[in-house]
């Protein structure tokens, strides 16, 4: 049975008005136990914010890590996405990709930093995403090395266009990634085709390491589902927050 202390979560819902996307965008913000505005906190920015909170149970897991695992308090920002345009925003070939990534760095992060006491050093920001959320997180970090250095990728959808972007880079020594993929993801059907996610992740790991990135890489029994990722999320968080 889950300890009731883990369920006493503070989650704030915010809405930003994006002039870049020309629409409103919902955020879910987890504040840690003992939250104090005069302190400062590391921050995790999650793509698919609604799913990270609902299916990944990241707020409950965060409470558990902070209360019982001696992890310093941190803030989580979940950036929600409309599933109808998710590929368009998260894939580098998507028609909303440039606008979304610009919104992320020029509107979402400044909003969070103006309203919450998150740390502003690149080493104190973590990007997290599953599938294409891992993809857009990697692209954000490559495009904005002054902002990001740490990425949690849960079964990243590292299609050929993303691998080509990585291959064009010469120095990714500033990047640190936690990558995990499930061994039952070898013929996964997506909205753009059927892919072998194990092969995609192995190839991308090799490309990243060849360019100096530090990669903690795992393959485990698991499917392309939150049932797999939720169980792996605590170790991923501890990797960067311990």
Automatic annotation (TrEMBL):
Organism whose genome encodes this protein: Paenibacillus zeisoli
Recorded superkingdom:
Bacteria
**What Pfam families does the record point to?**
Esterase
Kindly indicate where the leader peptide sits in this chain: none
Q: What is this protein called?
A: Esterase family protein
Coiled-coil intervals, chain numbering: none
């Amino acid at each position: 049975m889950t300890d009731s202390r883990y369920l006493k979560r503070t989650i704030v819902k915010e809405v930003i008005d994006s002039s870049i996307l020309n629409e409103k965008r919902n955020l879910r913000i987890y504040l840690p136990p003992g939250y104090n505005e005069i302190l400062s906190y590391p921050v995790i920015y999650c793509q698919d914010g609604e799913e990270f909170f609902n299916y990944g149970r990241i707020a409950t897991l965060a409470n558990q890590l902070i209360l019982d695992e001696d992890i310093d308090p941190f803030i989580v920002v979940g950036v929600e996405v409309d599933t109808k345009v998710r590929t368009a925003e998260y894939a580098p070939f998507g028609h909303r990709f440039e606008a979304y990534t610009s919104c992320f760095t020029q509107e979402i992060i400044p909003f969070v930093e103006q309203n919450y006491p998150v740390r502003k050093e690149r080493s104190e920001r973590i990007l997290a995403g599953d599938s294409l959320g891992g993809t857009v997180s990697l692209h954000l970090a490559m495009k904005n090395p002054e902002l990001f250095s740490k990425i949690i990728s849960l079964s990243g959808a590292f299609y050929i266009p993303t691998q080509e972007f990585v291959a064009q880079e010469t120095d990714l020594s500033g990047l640190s990634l936690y990558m995990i993929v499930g061994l039952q993801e070898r013929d996964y059907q997506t909205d753009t085709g059927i892919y072998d996610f194990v092969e995609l992740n192995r190839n991308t790991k090799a490309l990243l390491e060849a360019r100096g990135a530090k990669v903690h890489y795992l393959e485990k029994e698991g499917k392309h589902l939150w049932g797999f990722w939720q169980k792996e999320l605590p170790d991923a968080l501890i990797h960067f927050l311990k």
